[in-house]
Amino acid sequence: MKPGRNDPCYCGSGKKYKRCCIDNVSRQQAQVFDDINALAMNPHLTLDEMNSVLQHKVEKRNNLPEPDFCGLSPTQMANWLYAPFDDLQWVTFGTPEDLSSSPVMRYLTLILDEAMQNNGAFKATSKGNLPAALVQKASNLLPDLAVSEFEDTIEFSEFTGSREDRFNALHYTRVLAEIAGIIYYRNGSYHIKKDAQQQYKKQWPEAFFNPMLKAALYEYNWGYFDSFEQDVDLHTCWLFMLWRIQSHCNVEQLVDEMMKAFPDLLLALPTDHYFSPEEQLSFLIESRFIERFLQFWGFATIDPRRYLNREPVARIAQIQPLLGQTFQFSVKA
């Protein structure tokens, strides 16, 4: 059955049909007909054998490098977009031995330590936030983190605050811990789940790294901290973006690669009076992926300044050791 224009392309690329193979249908049909005709000329092949050979040829085409995917094949891209975390290929995952440079893991340590020192629970504020004393401890960690290099204007920092709802990285950590099933809120207090208490005693903090990371990648709403009206799904592309930024560190190049690989992203970003769709996509990638994923986890940092001495500051991500220790790619950049 021929796919509709807005259906996912049958090649497995993740693009809509109208944005992928529709312009190449005549060429592809000609190739298929040539293959069929060549097979039909062989009287010794049964129908099942012909189907098997054709299937092999289709799979071979789907495994060819695609320039729009920076050399990934449609098969590889489909795996990175749609496979569950444990079924992802061409990448291996590790748990770093030293997690002290990760803001998320340092803040989680404070939260769990506070609970474990009080029989597995501690009282929240009247608004359901973490207590002020814990927030202050988290703020005091800033000098130990790589992001401190750029934190000159503390009142606008994501990594300090007088209370949880003004301290984005800490709030993010608490939300992830709840999503990951490590802590829960009940009757005005935060509690550590019983199995998490056992893990805390036996394998802290390594036991919580993967559950927190999976929650951030697959269950957390990447648009939580911004008020962007358009529904732009970036988190599906997280592994592709991670691969690219690790290879060249250039945010502008990453945006160009995303526009080429996923042109439908621009369709959700209409031109307004101030910013083009391309500029809006760049803002979302830097805000949601670079600043509020890579930086929160300690995987990378980026200079928040856009201009220095009236000159634009290059949007270059400073890759941190934790990134390479967590993700090792087996495909060439």
Molecular structure report:
This protein has 333 residues and is mostly helical. It is built from 13 helices and nine strands. The strands form four sheets. It has a three-stranded antiparallel beta sheet with strand order 2-4-3. The protein has a two-stranded antiparallel sheet with strand order 1-9. The protein has a two-stranded antiparallel ribbon with strand order 5-8. The radius of gyration is 24 Å and the shape is globular.
Short description:
The protein is mainly alpha-helical. It has helices at residues 25-40, 47-62, 74-82, 103-116, 132-139, 168-179, 194-202, 206-219, 238-248, 251-261, 264-267, 277-297, 321-326, and strands at 91-93, 121-123, 183-186, 189-192, 300-302, 307-308, 311-312, 317-319, 327-329.
